[in-house]
């Protein structure tokens, strides 16, 4: 199982910026913890971070046919980016959106996620642990999707034999 982890703008500044909101962990530390958890479950992770909306859209599109699912923190773009939402809808992969802070306790403009309409689920407000929760949810969803696909293929093969 292969999962793309896509990080949006300013997440490269974790551990430095607004620690009272985002905590002291760096993005690299979060990724290292994710790798450890993923390795225990036989999951391969690919990490990508960009401050540029178009690069995030490109990476989402590149996921089609390459990965089984996406774990994304669009950061500030979650509140504004129709382009990222459309890219997520276009690839139609199981996707979990993660936010470190509880966006519903923040400024009014941060309380709406445009991208959430294109994802399987959203995890918000659990700090860096939200990434682990998202990873667990995504691996379960992908496993279920693969099981259904295998069942459908088996039924098709049996129908062709008749």
UniProtKB/TrEMBL annotation:
Catalytic function, reaction form: 3-dehydroquinate = 3-dehydroshikimate + H2O
GO biological process: amino acid biosynthetic process; aromatic amino acid family biosynthetic process; chorismate biosynthetic process; quinate catabolic process
EC number per UniProt: 4.2.1.10
PROSITE patterns given in the database record: DEHYDROQUINASE_II (PS01029)
Keyword entries, A-Z: Amino-acid biosynthesis, Aromatic amino acid biosynthesis, Lyase
Pathway annotation: Metabolic intermediate biosynthesis; chorismate biosynthesis; chorismate from D-erythrose 4-phosphate and phosphoenolpyruvate: step 3/7
GO molecular function, one term: 3-dehydroquinate dehydratase activity
UniProt cross-references to SUPFAM superfamilies, sorted A to Z: Type II 3-dehydroquinate dehydratase (SSF52304)
Signal peptide: none
Highest taxon, organism lineage: Bacteria
Pfam families (alphabetical): DHquinase_II (PF01220)
Record bears the keyword Amino-acid biosynthesis: yes
InterPro entries assigned to the protein according to its UniProt record, in alphabetical order: DHquinase_II (IPR001874), DHquinase_II_CS (IPR018509), DHquinase_II_sf (IPR036441)
Active-site residues, Swiss-Prot/TrEMBL: 22, 99
Classification via Gene3D superfamilies: Dehydroquinase, class II
Site feature (Transition state stabilizer) residues: 17
Binding sites annotated in the UniProt record for substrate: 73, 79, 86, 100-101, 110
Entry's family note: Belongs to the type-II 3-dehydroquinase family.
HAMAP family xrefs: AroQ
Functional summary from the UniProt entry: Catalyzes a trans-dehydration via an enolate intermediate.
Quaternary structure and interacting proteins, as annotated: Homododecamer.
Protein name: 3-dehydroquinate dehydratase
Native species: Halarcobacter ebronensis
